[in-house]
């Protein structure tokens, strides 16, 4: 769906077919919200569709360094969010580091500069992560990082969202949700419709993945879809 079509669809859903001040926002404001919404949609879909939204790379540890810049140290230049960090040791299970959400809890897992077993990670800032305990030695490709990439902004009205085609409609619902949050509508109603559309998109994309990879749905799933009487 092109940006111009998506913008019109949003206006249809909102029953506001003209621009502000008479209707729903100016075109340029909607364009900005649609680019923001692409990222919101990716964040919402990624947990259910990791094969479609997660990128991965490895990064090396530096002796006695516990904080790593996402772009310069890890090499991710388009990071929207990090999903998981896994140990990457030959012959070992790729166990994940435990994510610690609150940076204030960081030093529960090690003193400043303390080296030892690396079990935890968190955000030091929006552009850096920390690892605890601090690595004692430099090791190449020591960890594998899975991340959701930031979506590419739509450059003009002929551009389409940087998402699977069937997920384009969710950009419209996310824009309406943002608008409702600002006081322009019923948030709970919009969220319910948004969630229903999201579930349908996830089901569709999972089916497409199964068909493409030769994965057969279970009998129970076929019955649920109405494929078996």
Count the domains: 2
> Strands across the major sheet, in which order?
2-6-5-4
**Total helix count?**
6
Overall geometric form? elongated
Radius of gyration: 22 Å
Mean pLDDT: 88
| Oligomeric state as shown | single chain
Strand runs, count: 7
How would a textbook summarize the main sheet?
A: 4 strands, mixed
Assess the beta-strand content as a share of residues. 15-25%
**Helix/strand/pairing class, anyone?**
alpha+beta
Instruction: Provide the succession of SSEs.
Output: HHHEEEEEEEHHH
Give the helix proportion (percent range): 25-40%
**Low-confidence parts lasting 5 or more residues at pLDDT below 50?**
none
- In whole angstroms, how far apart are the ends? 36 Å
Structure description:
This protein starts with a helix and ends with a helix. The strands form 2 sheets. It has a 4-stranded mixed beta sheet with strand order 2-6-5-4, with no helix packed on it. Strands 1-7-3 form a 3-stranded antiparallel beta sheet. The protein folds into 2 domains: 81 residues, no CATH class; 97 residues, no CATH class. The chain has 229 residues and is α+β, with helices and mostly antiparallel strands. It is elongated and about 60 Å long.
Q: How do you describe this structure in short?
A:
This protein has 229 residues and is an alpha+beta fold. Helix content is 38%, strand content 19%.
Break the fold down into its secondary structure elements and pairings.
Blueprint: H1 3-14, H2 27-45, H3 50-53, E1 54-61, E2 67-69, E3 79-87, E4 98-99, E5 120-125, E6 128-132, E7 139-149, H4 168-184, H5 187-213, H6 219-225
Parallel strand pairs: 4-5
Antiparallel strand pairs: 1-7, 2-6, 3-7, 5-6
Helix pairs in contact: 1-4, 2-4, 4-5
């Amino acid at each position: 769906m092109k940006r111009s079509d998506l913008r019109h669809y949003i206006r249809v859903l909102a029953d506001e077919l003209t621009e502000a001040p008479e209707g729903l926002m100016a075109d340029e404001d909607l364009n900005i919200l649609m680019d923001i919404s692409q990222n919101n949609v990716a964040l919402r879909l990624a947990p259910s569709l990791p094969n479609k939204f997660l990128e991965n790379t490895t990064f090396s540890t530096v002796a006695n360094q516990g904080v790593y810049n996402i772009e310069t140290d890890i090499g991710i230049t388009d990071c929207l969010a990090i999903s998981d960090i896994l140990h990457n040791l030959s012959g070992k299970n790729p166990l994940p580091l435990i994510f610690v959400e609150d940076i204030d809890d960081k030093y529960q897992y090690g003193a400043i500069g303390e080296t030892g077993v690396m079990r935890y990670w968190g955000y030091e800032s929006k552009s850096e992560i920390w690892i605890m305990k601090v690595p004692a030695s430099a090791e190449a490709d020591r960890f594998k990082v899975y991340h959701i990439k930031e979506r590419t902004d739509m450059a003009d009205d002929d551009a389409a969202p940087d998402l699977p085609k069937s997920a384009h409609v969710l950009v419209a619902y996310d824009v309406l949700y943002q608008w409702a949050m600002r006081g322009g509508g019923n948030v709970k109603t919009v969220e319910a419709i948004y969630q229903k559309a999201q579930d349908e998109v996830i089901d569709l994309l999972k089916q497409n993945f199964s068909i493409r990879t030769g994965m057969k749905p279970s009998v129970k799933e076929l019955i649920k879809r109405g494929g078996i009487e």
